[in-house]
Write a structure and sequence with these properties.
Chain C: Keywords: 4Fe-4S, Iron, Iron-sulfur, Metal-binding. The structure holds 3 protein chains of 3 kinds. By secondary structure, chain A is mainly alpha-helical. Among the domains of chain A are: 106 residues, Leucine-rich Repeat Variant (Alpha Horseshoe), CATH 1.25.10; 62 residues, Leucine-rich Repeat Variant (Alpha Horseshoe). Chain A is built from 19 helices and no strands. In chain A, helix 7 packs parallel to helix 9, helix 11 runs parallel beside helix 13 and helix 17 runs parallel beside helix 19. Chain A is elongated and about 80 Å long. Among the domains of chain B are: 102 residues, Flavocytochrome C3, Chain A, domain 1 (Alpha-Beta Complex); 107 residues, Fumarate reductase/succinate dehydrogenase flavoprotein-like, C-terminal domain (Methane Monooxygenase Hydroxylase, Chain G, domain 1, Up-down Bundle), CATH 1.20.58.100. Chain B is 34% helix and 15% strand. Chain B contains 15 helices and 17 strands. In chain B, helix 3 packs across helix 10, helix 12 runs antiparallel to helix 13 and helix 12 runs parallel beside helix 14. By secondary structure, chain C is α+β, with helices and mostly antiparallel strands. Chain C is built from 2 helices and 4 strands; from the N terminus they run E-H-E-E-H-E. In chain C, strand 2 and strand 3 form a beta hairpin. The chains are: A mainly alpha, B alpha+beta, C alpha+beta. Chains in contact: A-B, A-C, B-C. The interface between A and B is large, with 51 and 55 residues.
């Protein structure tokens, strides 16, 4: 009878396969080491990052996804400079899976690297580790010529949630690339500063709808005095996605003064928008808007109908 | 490999978890953490690394109850309404209260949920009043992350053994009989508690492609859980509430309107018009879909070609990377581009699956079945609409409760004769010189399921089905023939499939009313709240055939107002409010 | 009732030149939920993986997990 249970082998025994002259055998050894889920396997996998065979190196970079800490991160950073793009890609993916803040120790020295792919991967990897030391290099990288790098750098800044980064984020909110602008605007969500709010309000007039959408959504988080007026001004945006986020944000802000403008939007032929309007009218609970909702109490769209009835219930209460 | 060997081994463990897909690994982990001294064995017909419904991953959670976005009360209400009121709310409510803790735990495992640019959870969609959809950007690594946790916790994993029958004695569970899928050797596991997480009965109906394994569910989920629970004497609830899904035609994978819906995609008829307003999968939605096809307004499509380029590429990114990655290949092969064409959809074959409907082994809020020491979780247990997060969460409940249960009991004695009888049953197809191969037994069963059980349900047709199933059973028991141990696995699956087909017919005949839209549309009967506002419980009767009883729906924890009860009833678009 | 031999095309294709079954690799065989892959010796005496049973869910772990990119999953002809 073959072995019944999956085995828990000795790591050093598994690692012997890494000395086999055949690359295939070394790949198999890496897979076994990875499956062990034993941190004792990390040094062996790290060594395999410098194997002469690209397939082995790629497997090692993939295998390191299952581990964490500075040693893992250091090996992955080395792999980012590999001559084979498949190894670089595998290493970049694995870097994003790091969770242990100490892993950042091995990434920090590489945040001023020239190579855009390596730099973007390092920022992406360290973002979720939330290391305060990343702030300086991330702000500097906002000047980088590559928009991939700028997007990742903005991401890092947003996760750090530090008011001192505001000027940098406001600059990024005027970046030439729409995706950088969008990311920067969403990142402003943590800030309670009126400068952040002013930047978001200004972005409601951006030429790209995905940027206006991000601004409308994020204004619900900042919530200062000027937000409501600004959001009301985009309730007639040509993209329903922008209108929807504006309505949602007005609901979150409790902007009862906007209720009479949201009411007539129930008649628009966009199902997602109608659902959102009904829900928000309920949240605002302004009795004068009841007639806009009553028409749709038996709407054929179950989501609209439910939200409408819920909203009317709120007004009655 | 694959030759048929003679062998029988017996092992003991405290908790046997059958099924290493979604619920099973979480059950094993929770039990082991609660009682590190317990010997927990996790057994799978395939390999735990890549087994079960989420073998390739999952693109997101669609029933996450996250504080600030939805409340347990709201969620419980939604699910009760979506399931036509037939719902013991305690299990749903407990799920809703505790699933956020499971999300945080999964996040620690390295399974990521989408966060916004400040690192907070990015809950996407408002499909009802609450917000429940949480995308998973690295959803393709779910199984890997789970596997890593199992290895770290030193859970004993047994791969490539298929359990065929549960053992019972002293009025409780005693273990399970299993067979190796590559050698046909037997393994008897004595256990103080058994947790079943064997997935849906996904190979019940036959896909219209005619390809046996072209099912919506992972075809390894062939209903063993339902069959084993039945033969052990457990109660199964509301099996007539079939799973039927709106899928991409031929590919038979989900169209995922829940991904596309919030971004503006929708289900349309041949003219490109919306005819249903809510793409949330429910029996009523499927009924409208069916009516549209019957009314000559089909085919029905997933419509995305009116959306902005940014939106379409975002939808593609989500849908083509995880859960069913071959979906991109399929569209490429057909030359369909979301930007240009609508995607043809159809109505799936039937199955049992509580993950999307409510047909499952009856369990309470601790995942306990009606047999002491026996638990069930995930798609095979009857907590309605519980999806992947429900499998994780209810699996956790099962593991935690089982860890307590084993503290007070020793192994239950069972009749050794049962093992011998099961060996004879299992090995019978290996003892013949020729006969009917299992794929033909399976094909015929499933073709009959389509012919006679696919709704709308007609009494005379279902009675014919029962007669035909008996003939197939006779052929299976007297004439099935297998050449190797792999085929023997398929033969055992054919037997589970036939058991499920029998149960589907019997359960559907018992409930003499219509409920759950298309799922239980009995053309001769209207809805009848007076007599049928209850669960139906199916058990194995004295005569070895399905027996039935009604069981009261437990008093609600969360009250539902009368005007809310029809929330899923009317779904047809009012032409005067034209869609965009 | 004797059995017939009926041909069928299989969706999973393995590139023998890339497959390292010779080195003891069984990754694709291990991860297949339906257990349809096996290792066989080729005419040249090398080992390679192949699809033995036409029971594919086109789910892709074999392709995704193959360390050398030797496996391609196509859609079964009946539904593509």
């Amino acid at each position: 009878m073959s072995a019944l249970f999956e085995e828990f082998d000795d790591i050093s025994e598994l690692a012997e396969g890494l000395d086999d002259p055949a690359p295939g055998a070394r790949i198999m050894a890496i897979i076994d080491l990875t499956d062990s889920a034993d941190p004792a396997a990390i040094p062996y996998l790290a060594k395999a990052i410098s194997d002469e065979d690209a397939g082995v190196r790629k497997q090692a970079a993939q295998g390191l996804t299952d581990f964490d800490g500075p040693e893992t991160a250091a090996a992955l950073v080395i792999a980012l400079s590999d001559t084979d793009p498949a190894v670089v890609e595998a290493a970049a993916i694995s870097l994003k899976e790091l969770k242990d803040p100490s892993a950042g120790d091995s990434i920090l020295p590489h945040l001023s690297d020239e190579d855009e792919i390596k730099l973007a991967a390092c920022f992406a990897g360290i973002k979720e580790l939330r290391r305060p030391e990343t702030m300086g290099p991330a702000i500097a990288a906002l000047k980088h010529s590559s928009d991939i790098v700028r997007i990742e750098a903005v991401g890092v800044i947003g996760w750090l949630q530090d008011e001192t980064s505001l000027p940098a984020l406001r600059d990024a909110a005027h970046d030439a690339t729409p995706k950088v602008r969008r990311t920067a605007l969403s990142a402003l969500g943590f800030s309670k500063s009126e400068h952040a709010e002013a930047t978001l309000i200004e972005a409601l007039n951006d030429s790209e709808w995905i940027v206006r959408e991000a601004a409308a959504e994020t204004l619900a988080k900042t919530g200062g005095a000027g937000c409501v007026t600004a959001l009301r001004s985009v309730l007639d945006d040509e993209f329903w996605q922008v209108r929807l986020k504006a309505v949602r944000s007005l609901g979150k802000l409790g902007a009862t003064e906007a209720a009479m403008e949201i009411g007539p939007m129930m008649d628009l032929p966009v199902p997602n928008l109608r659902k959102e309007c009904a829900a928000v009218l309920g949240e605002l609970a302004v009795p004068e808007t009841a007639p806009f909702l009553q028409k749709y109490e038996d709407d054929t769209d179950p989501d609209v109908r439910k939200n409408v009835r819920w909203a009317l219930g709120k007004m009655a209460a | 490999m694959d030759e048929i060997l003679d062998g029988l081994t017996q092992i003991d463990c405290d908790i046997l978890v059958i099924g290493g897909g979604t619920a099973g690994p979480m059950a094993a982990l929770k039990a082991k953490r609660k009682n590190p001294k317990a010997n927990v064995v996790l057994l799978d017909k395939a390999n735990v690394k890549r087994s079960g419904a989420i073998s390739m991953g999952m693109d997101g959670l669609n029933n996450s109850v996250i504080p600030g976005y939805a409340t347990p009360e709201q969620y419980t209400k939604e699910i009760t309404i979506a399931n036509d009121g037939i719902c013991d709310q305690a299990a749903v409510y407990r799920y809703a209260q505790e699933c956020y803790g499971i999300i945080e735990e999964l996040d620690e495992f390295g399974i990521r949920f989408q966060k916004d640019e400040n690192g907070e959870y990015d809950v996407k969609k408002v499909h009802h009043i609450g917000t429940y959809v949480l995308p998973m950007p690295n959803g393709d690594t779910v199984k890997k992350a789970l596997y890593r946790q199992l290895r770290k916790a030193r859970i004993n994993i047994i791969n490539r053994y298929m359990s065929t029958r549960l053992l019972t004695g002293e009025g409780r569970v005693a273990g399970a009989i299993c067979v190796n899928t590559r050698t046909a050797e037997f393994l008897v596991v004595r256990a103080k508690a058994v947790i079943m997480g064997l997935g849906a009965a996904g190979r019940l109906g036959l896909p219209t492609s005619g390809y046996l394994m072209g099912t919506y569910e992972n075809p390894t989920n062939s209903g063993e859980g339902y069959s084993m629970a039945y033969h052990a004497g457990a109660g199964l609830a509301n099996l007539e509430c079939y799973q039927i899904n709106p899928l991409i035609k031929d590919y038979n994978g989900p169209a995922c309107a829940y991904v596309a819906g919030p971004m503006g995609g929708y289900t349309a008829n041949a003219k490109g018009e919306r005819f249903i307003e809510c793409d949330y999968w429910s029996g009523q939605m499927m009924q409208e879909f069916y009516d549209e096809l019957q009314g000559g307004k089909g085919p029905v499509y997933l419509k995305l070609n009116h959306l902005a380029e940014e939106t379409v590429s975002e939808i593609e990114r989500v849908l083509h990377i995880v859960e069913r990655p071959t979906r991109g290949h399929f569209h490429a092969g057909r030359g369909t581009d979301y930007r240009k064409q609508m995607i043809e959809m159809h109505i799936s074959e039937i199955g049992f699956c509580s993950g999307h409907s409510a047909s499952g082994v009856f369990v309470d809020e601790h995942a306990r079945t009606t047999i002491p020491g026996l638990y069930a979780a995930g798609d095979m247990a009857n907590v309605p609409h519980n999806y992947m997060l429900g499998a994780f969460t209810n699996g956790a409940f099962a593991g935690l409760d089982a860890a307590d249960f084993i503290a007070d009991v020793d192994f239950a004695a069972f009749d050794e004769g049962e093992v011998e009888a099961e060996r004879n049953r299992v090995l019978a197809p290996t003892k013949r010189d020729d006969g009917i191969p299992p794929n033909q037994i399976e094909y015929k069963t499933r073709r009959l399921v389509n012919d006679y059980l696919q709704p709308p349900k007609v009494t005379a047709k279902m009675e014919l089905a029962q007669k035909r199933f008996e003939e197939v059973r006779d052929d299976m028991e007297q004439g099935m023939y297998v050449q190797d141990s792999h085929e023997l696995m398929r033969a055992l699956e054919a037997s589970s499939i036939l058991d499920c087909a029998d149960m589907a017919a019997a359960a559907s005949l018992y409930r003499t009313e219509s409920r759950w839209g298309l799922y239980h549309n009995r053309v001769e009967y209207e809805r009848d709240n007076e007599n049928w506002f209850c669960h139906t419980i199916l058990t194995k009767g004295e005569d070895g055939k399905p027996a039935h009883r009604k069981q009261d729906v437990k008093p609600y924890v969360v009250e539902i107002a009368d005007e809310e009860k029809d929330a899923y009833d009317k779904q047809r678009v009012d032409p005067s409010v034209a869609a965009e | 009732m004797p059995l017939a031999q009926t041909s069928t095309t299989v969706p999973v294709i393995v590139n023998d030149d890339l497959c390292i079954a010779d080195k003891g690799c069984t990754v694709c065989v291990d991860v297949c939920p339906l257990d349809v892959l096996r290792i066989v010796e080729t005419d040249e005496g090398n080992k390679t993986a192949f699809m033995k049973y036409d029971e594919c869910w086109y789910c892709m772990p074999c392709e995704a997990d193959c360390p050398t990119g030797a496996v391609t999953v196509n859609l079964p002809y009946l539904l593509k």
